[in-house]
Automatic annotation (TrEMBL):
Residue span(s) of domain Methyltransferase type: 66-156
CDD domains recorded: AdoMet_MTases (cd02440)
UniProt GO MF annotations: S-adenosylmethionine-dependent methyltransferase activity
Domain of life: Bacteria
Pfam annotation, one family: Methyltransf_11
Protein name: Methyltransferase type 11 domain-containing protein
Gene3D superfamilies linked: Vaccinia Virus protein VP39 (3.40.50.150)
InterPro entries the record matches: Methyltransf_11, SAM-dependent_MTases_sf
Amino acid sequence: MAGARILAGMLDFTDFDTRGYRTVNVPTGYGRWVRTYEDTVEDTMDLALLDRLTVPAWDSVRRAADLGCGTGRTGAWLRARGVAAVDGVDLTPEMLAVARGKGAHRRLVHGDVRTTPLDTGAYDLVIASLIDEHLPELRPFYDEAWRLAAPGAHCVLVAFHPHFIMASGMPTHFTDEDGEDIAISTHIHLLSDHVSAALGAGWQLAEMREGVVDADWLTVKPKWERFRNHPVSAALVWRKA
Ligand SMILES: C[S@@+](CC[C@H](N)C(=O)[O-])C[C@H]1O[C@@H](n2cnc3c(N)ncnc32)[C@H](O)[C@@H]1O
């Protein structure tokens, strides 16, 4: 896009925004979205991609750090695949309260994924699903994941695909109880931004999958017909060699 501004090496979502929704910060937004979050987030976005990964071997994971754990969807998915213990961190108390009720996590902590209070080198899996678009920069996330990871650990990140954010002009958003569509602060990270940040932190790429708007997607989102076959999410698996 001609004239798209590059901020600190990254694209600025406002250059792509076709919705113009009022934008709020992460804890404000998720604190209000929490009532309907699990009814609106689609498993095809993230859990279907996790299902397609060949690494890590989930049932051999003893301890996982679930960064941006939200209401516990990712944690519950991990436990169902045999992960022994999952510790979660999230910035939004209301999301953590729902996760607490779900009971999938061994420990739940209110905090920022870039500066968690979790133990250094304690995890053989660090996972973050659908949170990276809320981070202005990726490197602090990948650095913190590296600190938490034991030697040989994996880091799995599932992202709202940058192509889809740009092509749709749609930020992460929800509809509040008054019917207003509200955006939650959204940043665009190209896949090359992930590669640069993760390699810089020390990670090696082990696997990558992209999800497109396919027949399954169109069953749950018929109005996305114009995005048929566009990439909508991505899963990156990193290894601490
Ligand atoms: C779309 S939800 C994803 C939740 C969960 N991983 C899932 O897949 O359902 C994004 C979550 O990331 C959290 N989040 C965003 N930025 C964060 C940050 N810097 N530190 C901690 N949590 C953050 C939000 O509070 C929210 O619960």
